[in-house]
Amino acid sequence: ILFAFSSLHHLYKKLDPVIPEEELPGVSILKPLTGVDINLKSNLETFFTQKYPKYELLFSVQDDNDPAILVVKSLIDSYPKVDAKLFIGLKVVGPNGKINNMVRSYEAAKYDNIVISDTSIKMTPSTLYEMVHCLKPHVGLVLQMPYCATRKGFGAIYQQVYFGTMQARNCLSANAVNINCSTGMSSLLRRDVLDKAGGLAEFGKYLAEDFFIAEAIRSQGYKVVLSTTPALQNSGNSSITDFHSRLIRYVVDSHSMTLFDVSPLGFFMGHFLVWFLSDYILFRIVENGPLPFSKFEFLVAWLMRELLSPYIILSAHLQNHVVWRNQKYKLHWGGKVVVPVTSSLDAVAVS
């Protein structure tokens, strides 16, 4: 009930009043990149076509051998009127590779409002405006709830059903009762507030930097809110195996921050019909239209997701380390992360 009311009240809400163009603040968008997939260019291009008067794009890669460099340079050449820069090389401030990849672009950002956006995210032309509209004076961080763009293949359907039901339910319910639900895929924050917490580099010691950034902002009295539209993940990889590895990493991150490592393992066996219908309704709300695939495909993907929950959680509880972006990390209680000296990659590979 809580997530249903929250979704109906919050998602795709009409933005009133309209902010005059001359009053819109400048925004620096940080895009850390690693490698390419078939959707990278089309995803990045959506950031060059934002209907927003004043913003800059700051791309960053780890080294000059990254194939994403050619994609970024071609887009910069195609959109000469867009303020865009590319940073090559890491500034190591901790074990978190994503933070190391972003620190230089963060330090070079010229605007006080910062968007951090993952590689696979695509935007609609109005996304940046919608996020800024939610950044009221009492708000320090605006999150886009994770969702997926519609893609071909059952693996893509499975991921979309997961993010449109289970993930959406958790995120909307947590946000409604002021629980930190930050995922970091696409977020807008106030730079001055983050700098008071030590700046972006301060969070390089955590693997779940998004959670701790949100906590640091909340501790200063600012609210963390959801944008009115979800973040559209549009990865070229729809492998179910890779997606499960990614979910395991999320759960490992979560229970490393829990004093008593207790996670729910049971199915919601009772009230099956109510459970399914509530998720179906929520998915339709998040999708903002009819199903992009058949009801049968939705049912199969939903059943698959619910039935595999114990496997995902059990797999995560059997390990205290993950492999992320070709680097092995060991997690300690409190969410802090270290890089083991061993070269044995016996962890679950993640995307």
Automatic annotation (TrEMBL):
Pathway: Lipid metabolism; sphingolipid metabolism; Sphingolipid metabolism. Pfam families: Glyco_transf_21. It catalyses: UDP-alpha-D-xylose + an N-acylsphing-4-enine = a beta-D-xylosyl-(1<->1')-N-acylsphing-4-enine + UDP + H(+); N-(9Z-octadecenoyl)-sphing-4-enine + UDP-alpha-D-xylose = beta-D-xylosyl-(1<->1')-N-(9Z-octadecenoyl)-sphing-4-enine + UDP + H(+). It is an enzyme of class 2 (transferase). Keywords: Glycosyltransferase, Golgi apparatus, Lipid biosynthesis, Lipid metabolism, Membrane, Transferase, Transmembrane, Transmembrane helix. It comes from the Eukaryota. InterPro entries: Ceramide_glucosylTrfase, Nucleotide-diphossugar_trans. One of its GO terms (molecular function) is ceramide glucosyltransferase activity. Belongs to the glycosyltransferase 2 family. This is ceramide glucosyltransferase.
